[in-house]
Amino acid sequence: MSKGVGAAVELGTIGVLFLLAVFCTLFSLSKQPYDLVEVRFCPPSANGHNTPEQKKLDLEYCSVPRFILREEWDMRGLFGSRIPEREDVQFKRLLPTDNPNQHWALTGTAISLGAISLVIYTRNSLLQSKYYSWLEDIKTTNFELWQDKKSQRDLKTVATQLNTQFKADIYSAVDNQNRVEAGLISTERLVQQQQMQDNLGMTQYELIIAELRKKIAEERLGEAKADKEKQKVLGDKEQNSVFNSKSNKLELEEQYQWINKLLKLPFRVLSGEQGSGKSTLERLMIRLLKDDGWHIVIINPETNPAVWSGVQVLADADEINTFFEAFPQTIRDRQQQARRLGIDEDDYLDHIKDKSGLEGKVAIFLMESNTYEVHGVDADLWADLLKQSLTNIRKWGYTVCLTAHSDNQTSISSKLQGFSKLIDSSPRVDCIAKAGSNGEAISIGKALLKMKGVNDKNPVEVELYNYPKSKNFSSESVASPSVQTKQQSTVSNGDWHEEIKKWVSEVGRPSSVNVKAKWEELTGHRLNDEGLRELMKYLGL
After folding, report:
1. How far apart are CA 447 and CA 464, in angstroms?
2. 401 CB-contact burial (10 Å; exposed 0-12 / middle 13-18 / buried 19+)
3. Global confidence as pTM
C-alpha cells in the first residue's frame, strides 16, 4: 500500500467514525426524555353533572391538558406528595418516553470517539517510526557523503603539498645552479651541505625510532614487572596453602604426641572444674589403652557398672577396699616373680606383653577420688594405694590416673601426709575448658588442656571425640573437624551417637528438648544452646 493510499484510508476511517459519533449524538436527543402523565382538572358543579353550569366548567377547565411526571402521579395522595388525591383531577393518558434507545446512542458516540483516538494514536506512532528511520537514513547518507568529501579533500591536500614540495625543489635547484655560475658557492660545498641535511634527517629519523623503541621497552618492562608480581602473589598463596595444610597436620600430630606422652606416664592427676572435659579425657585414655591390650580397672563409687563395657568397674565400697588392700601384695608378687625369672625391672613390661601366664598390664582410673572417704572407702587403704601409685609402679605393669576437682592432697585423702612434694611434682593435666553458669559444656568434642611436667607450652585444644584409635597417626585416620558430635560413649552397647541415632529412628522427629534430655542421659553431660544446634544438625533434625 502506497503512502497516499494509506493516508486516504486513515482519513476516511476518521471521517466515518466522526459522522457515526455525530449521528449517535443526534439520535440520543429527545423532546421527552421522561415518562409523563396527562391529567385534566374537572371541578364538579353544585347544580349536577348534566347541567349547563357543569358543561360550562368542563369547557373552561377540563379541556385544558396538564402534564406531570409519572412518578409524581403514582405517589399522589401519599405522604410527601405534591398532588392530592381528589375527584376533580382525572387521569387522561400515559405519555411514555419518546426515545427508548437514548443510552445505546450515547454508548455508540463514546465508542466512535474512542476509535478516532485509537486511529490517531496509531497514525502518530507510525509517523514517529517512519520519521526516525528517515532521519537515520539522512544521517547515514550525509555521513557517507562527508567521508567521501573528506577523502577528496585529503587527497587534494596531499597533492598540493607534493606539488609545492616539487616546485620548491625545482626552485632550489635552479637557485643553486645560479649561485654556482655566479661563483658564490662551489659545487663541493653544495654537495657537503646536501650531505649534512641528509645526515640530519637520518639522525632525526633514528631519534624517533629510538623514542618508539624506548616506549616499547618500557611497556614490556611494565608487563614483566606485573607478571613477576602476579607470580609472587600466586606463589605466596600456594605457599600459604601448603603451610596451612602442614600446620594443620602438625597440629594434629602434636595433639597425638601429647596424648601419647600422657598415656606413658605411670601416675598423673586430672584436675578441673565440672564440665571442663575430665571424664571425656578419661574415656579417651581408656579407649586407647584398651586398644593397646591393657586391662582397665575403673574405681568410682558414684558410677553405674552397667553402663561400662569391656572394663572392670568397682563401685561398691567393700569391693574398693578389697582391691586397695590386695594392691600392695600384687606389686610384691610381681617383684618376686621377676626375681625368680631373672628378669630386670625394665624388661618386666615386655615379659607381661608376652603374656607368660601373667595378668598383663593394668591401668587403674581413680575417678571422683575426692569422694571416696564419703562413700565409706577405708582412708588408710586409700592413702596406702596413693603412696604405692606415686612410686615407680609402671615397671610392674601398672599405671594410675587420678581424677579430682582439685589436686590438693587434703581434698583427695585426709591421711595422705608427707607426700605433698610428690603430688606437686607429678605430672598434672589441668582441664581448663570452663563450664557455663549452669554447668553446661562449652563445646562438643574439644577440651583445652595443659600438662605440667610434660608440656609447659600454652594450653592445647585437643579433639577428644574425633581422635584416631590407631597409634599409627595419619591425617586420614582423624575425623573431619566439622564433625563435632561424635564422642566416646559410656553405654554398654556402643558409642552414644549410635544409640541416639537409633533412638531418633525409632521416635521419628523428636523435639530439641527431647534430644537434649536423651544426650544428657547417655553421656552424663549437659548441652548449651550452641552444642544443641550442632547435635541437631548432626542428627539431621
Report:
1. 7
2. buried
3. 0.43
